[in-house]
Amino acid sequence: MDRIPVCVRADDPISQVGVVGALRSRPEVQVLEDKGVEEAEVALVVTGGVSENGLRLLRSVGQASRARLVLVATEIDESELVSVAGVGVVGVVRRGEATPERLVRVVRSAAAGEGAVPPDLLGRLLGQVGRAQRHVLGPRGLTFNNLTERESEVLRLVAEGLDTAEVATRLAYSPRTVKQVLHDIQIRFQLRNRCHAVAYAMRHGLI
């Protein structure tokens, strides 16, 4: 088994020593010394809460390496989860649940490119996302995938093989409107043509 290179950064020395000590004997990970952050595959950032200092520490580690970030925090709620995701965090562990076994599981998930969030926190986050879609983005014709509802509809029909006139008829738009929608998508995502736009949207789960 290849050991996963891990660095630990904490906002207090006791937490730093504690987490390093908990992981050092684990065969699944290789705990790097202080100057090894650039070689880390996963970085564990330990902080009391998602304060400005905590976010600053996360950004600092993220900028110093390409490591996937895992946050170990005493307290975190769903609104703070959005903030930490914005700075690149892919895994979250509450301090009270941060056993060596749990830390290793989350490190392995992060190294594999997977996310790891406490189930209750994820459930509340999904509820918050749904409310934002219904009450904030939806009334403005927007979605979380950076496409408007109209753009998504046009791309889905093009992906089904409909030409401009058929899409226009199906959606009760003018052919000119359909062409403009496709043009806007191509410009925004720097795509060459409508086939490229459909391929891009399907590859990235936009439709």
Give a quick precis of the structure.
The protein has 207 residues and is of the alpha/beta class. Helices cover 53% and strands 14% of the residues. Helix 1 (13-24) links the parallel strand 1 (4-10) and strand 2 (29-31).
Runs in which pLDDT lies below 50 for 5 or more consecutive residues are none
Strand content: 5-15%
Q: How many β-strands, per DSSP?
A: 5
- Radius of gyration, rounded? 22 Å
Helix content: 40-55%
Widest sheet, order of strands: 2-1-3-4-5
- Summarize the helix and strand pattern as letters: EHEEHEHEHHHHHH
| Structure classification | alpha/beta
What does the overall shape look like? Answer: elongated
How large is the count of helical segments?
9
Could you give a short account of the major beta sheet? 5 strands, parallel
Mean of pLDDT: 83
Distance between the termini: 38 Å
Features:
207 residues; 5-stranded parallel sheet; alpha/beta; 5 strands
What report would you give on this structure?
With 207 residues, the protein is of the alpha/beta class. 53% of the residues lie in helices and 14% in strands. The chain has 9 helices and 5 strands, in the order E-H-E-E-H-E-H-E-H-H-H-H-H-H. A 5-stranded parallel sheet has the order 2-1-3-4-5, with helices on both faces. Helix 3 crosses helix 5, helix 6 crosses helix 9 and helix 7 packs across helix 8. The radius of gyration is 22 Å and the shape is elongated.
